[in-house]
Automatic annotation (TrEMBL):
<dbReference type="Pfam" id="PF02824">
    <property type="entry name" value="TGS"/>
</dbReference>
<dbReference type="InterPro" id="IPR004095">
    <property type="entry name" value="TGS"/>
</dbReference>
<comment type="similarity">
    <text>Belongs to the relA/spoT family.</text>
</comment>
<keyword id="KW-0378">Hydrolase</keyword>
<feature type="domain" description="TGS">
    <location>
        <begin position="381"/>
        <end position="446"/>
    </location>
</feature>
<feature type="domain" description="ACT">
    <location>
        <begin position="626"/>
        <end position="700"/>
    </location>
</feature>
<dbReference type="GO" id="GO:0015949">
    <property type="term" value="P:nucleobase-containing small molecule interconversion"/>
</dbReference>
<dbReference type="InterPro" id="IPR012675">
    <property type="entry name" value="Beta-grasp_dom_sf"/>
</dbReference>
<dbReference type="Pfam" id="PF04607">
    <property type="entry name" value="RelA_SpoT"/>
</dbReference>
<dbReference type="Pfam" id="PF19296">
    <property type="entry name" value="RelA_AH_RIS"/>
</dbReference>
<dbReference type="GO" id="GO:0008728">
    <property type="term" value="F:GTP diphosphokinase activity"/>
</dbReference>
<dbReference type="GO" id="GO:0042594">
    <property type="term" value="P:response to starvation"/>
</dbReference>
<dbReference type="Pfam" id="PF13328">
    <property type="entry name" value="HD_4"/>
</dbReference>
<dbReference type="GO" id="GO:0016301">
    <property type="term" value="F:kinase activity"/>
</dbReference>
<dbReference type="GO" id="GO:0005886">
    <property type="term" value="C:plasma membrane"/>
</dbReference>
<dbReference type="InterPro" id="IPR006674">
    <property type="entry name" value="HD_domain"/>
</dbReference>
<protein>
    <recommendedName>
        <fullName>GTP pyrophosphokinase rsh</fullName>
        <ecNumber>2.7.6.5</ecNumber>
    </recommendedName>
</protein>
Amino acid sequence: MIDVEDLIALVRNYNPRTNADLIRRAYAYGRQMHEGQFRHSGEPYFTHPVAVAAILTEQRLDDATIVTALLHDTIEDTKSTYTEVSRLFGPEIAELVDGVTKLTNLELSSAQSKQAENFRKLFMAMSKDLRVILVKLADRLHNMRTIKSMRPEKQAQKARETMEIFAPLAGRMGMQWMREELEDLGFRVLNPEARNSIIRRFITLQRETGDVVHKITADIRLELEKAQIEADVYGRAKKPYSIWRKMQEKDLAFSRLSDIYGFRVICASEQDCYRILGVIHQRWRAVPGRFKDYISQPKSNGYRSIHTTVSGRDGKRVEVQVRTRQMHEVAEAGVAAHWSYREGVRALNPFAVDPAKWIAGLTERLDEDDHDEFMENVKLEMYTDQVFCFTPKGDVVQLPRGATPLDYAYAIHTRIGNSCVSAKIDGIRVPLWTRLKNGQSVEIITAEGQRPQSSWIDIVTTGRAKAAIRRSLREEDRGRFVKLGQELARAAFDHVGRKATDKALRTAAKMLGLSDETELLAQIGSAELTARRVVETLYPELARSTAPEVDGQRPVVGLSQDQQFRRAPCCQPVPGERIVGITYRGQGVVIHAIDCPALEEFEEQPGRWVDLHWHAGRHAAVHTVTLELTISNDAGVLGRICTLIGEQKANISDLRFTDRKPDYYRLLVDVDLRDVEHLHMVMTALEAETDVAQISRHRDLSRKP
C-alpha cells in the first residue's frame, strides 16, 4: 500500500501548492474507518481507496478529487456518515463522496427498466459534478486490475458491465487510454482464449517480420528530418480487443487484417500538423476513404487530431495520427483536463469542450420522468455505429445504420413485419424504404391479409428481415414450387444422361449451402436457382482452358534449376493448393500441403522451409491422389464407379480393397489429376452416386518422407 507521504509526493509533482494536511487527515480517517475490513485477495480494504487516489494523481487532479478517492467507500461501507464527512472535510468533498456512493449502488447490469432508471441517476450525478465519474472510473479500473481474486461468476458480471457501460463512457469522455485498458481487462476475463490467440499471433508476426513498429517509426522520423519539421513519433501495435472487434465486425482472419499498427506524430503547431500530413502522403500512398480531419471539425468531446491510413512497408496498412502537444494532452486526459493542475495552477485547456455543455445537450430535450428515453439517448451519444429508435410506447429498438421501417417492424416481431403496409416516423407517414435516424419515433401500420412483397428484399438491411421475407415468399406457394422444381430437375438430369435421385439432389443441396433437397427443389421452382446450375454443380463439364500448358518437369515456382523435388506421399498436394517445401539432405525438396500434420516436426527448423507455389496455367493430369471409398456390394457397382471417374477425364492408376463385407466394400483408389479443381469434380461426381456411401481424401502419415 502506498504511504501517505508518497501519495502527497505524487500530488506535489504537479501541484506544489497542494493542501498536504487535508490529504493526511483524509488518509488517516479512511484508514481508521476501514480498519478490520479486507478485500477478496486478503489485503486490507484501505489499499483500494489509496490505489484509486494514485490513479487520479496520474491525471493531475485537484485535492478535492484525491480526497474523494480516499473516502469514496466510507459512507457506504463504514459507520461514517454524510454529515460527518461534511463536518470534517467540507460540503464540496461530502457531495462528491455521496455522488460516488450513489453511483456504486447502481446495478448497471440489472433488468431493462431498472437499468434505465439507474442510468439516468448516473448522468444526473455526472451533471452535478463530473469529478464523480472520474473517481468512479478510477475505482472500476483498479477493481478490474485486481479482479482475479473475485469468484468467476462475479468476474464475468463485472467484466460485462465494464465493456457495456464504463469503457464506452470513458471513451465518450475522451479518456481513450482508460477505455482501452478497461476493454482489455474485460476481454481478458470474458474471452481469454481469443485474447491469448491474438497475442500469440503478434509474437509470431514479430518473429517473421522483425520489429515493424521500430522500422516504420524510423522511416517517419527520417522523412520529418528531411522536411526540417520537429516532432515526436510514437508507434505501437493495437490492443488485442481492438483487433478482435475489427476481426468480428469485418469477418476477417488475423492474417487478413491490415492496419494493426498505429503511429502518432506530435508536433508544436496546427500548421506543422498539415505539413506533416503532406510529408506522409508524399512518402506513402494514402488509403482512400480513411482520412479524417478532427482539427478543423473537432469531435463533440473536444478531441482534435488528423487521422490518415497509408500503405507502409511491404504494402501493410498503418494508421497515423497527427496532433499538437496541447491536442495530445486533451486526447489523453479527456474531460479530466478541466480539473488537472500544473505547477499549482488549474490548467484551463482551450481545446477541451466543457463537459457540462455535453451533459446539458444530452438532457435538454428529455422528459424528467422518462427514464427509458433518457437511457437510450445516452446510448445514442456513446454508440454512434447503431441507430436507436423508439416505439410509440417509448420502448427502444436497436438497429444497424441504414435500417428502414421494415427492418424495425421485423425487429419487433415477424408477424408485424409480414403484415406491414406503411409506417409513420415522428407522426408523419413515410415510404417503407426511408432510412431511420437516431432518436426517431416509429409507428408501424399493419393490415390483415397483407403478405411480404418480393421487392422488400431490396429495401431491408438486416439479416433477420431478409430471412423472414424469403421464408414467407417461399412458404406461400411452396408445394407448387416443389412440384415444378421436380419436373425441371428431372428434365435437366435426363438431358445429361443422369437420374435426379434423392441422393444426387441431397448432395447438390449440401454443396449449394441449402438445408435439404426439398429446399433445393423449391428454389428451382421459384426461379431462385436454375436446374442447369444444379447439374453443373454435380457434373461440371471439362472446359477447355486457354491457359498455357505447365511444364510437368518444373510445376512449382521457388526452386533453383538444379534442385530436385518430389510430392510428399503423406499429403499428396495438387496444383491449386497452398504448399511449402522441406529440404532433405541428399534428397532435394519434398513438397507438402500447407496443412499437412507432418510439418509439425519441422516447426523448430525454419532453415529447412522453402517458400513454394504452383505455376499458373494448365497442369498435366499426373498428380496422384488417393481416395477412400465405401461402396455397396452389388453387381456392376465397381464398374460404374470406374466409369464415373473416367468420365471426369481422370485415370485410375491403382485400386486396392481394405475391407470386404457382405453388404459393402471399402477401397483405396489412386487417381491421377490435374489440380484441386479436378479433384473436386471427381469427388463431387462420386458423392452424388447412390451406391457410394462415403468418400474422402486419404492421407497416410505413416508414409512420411
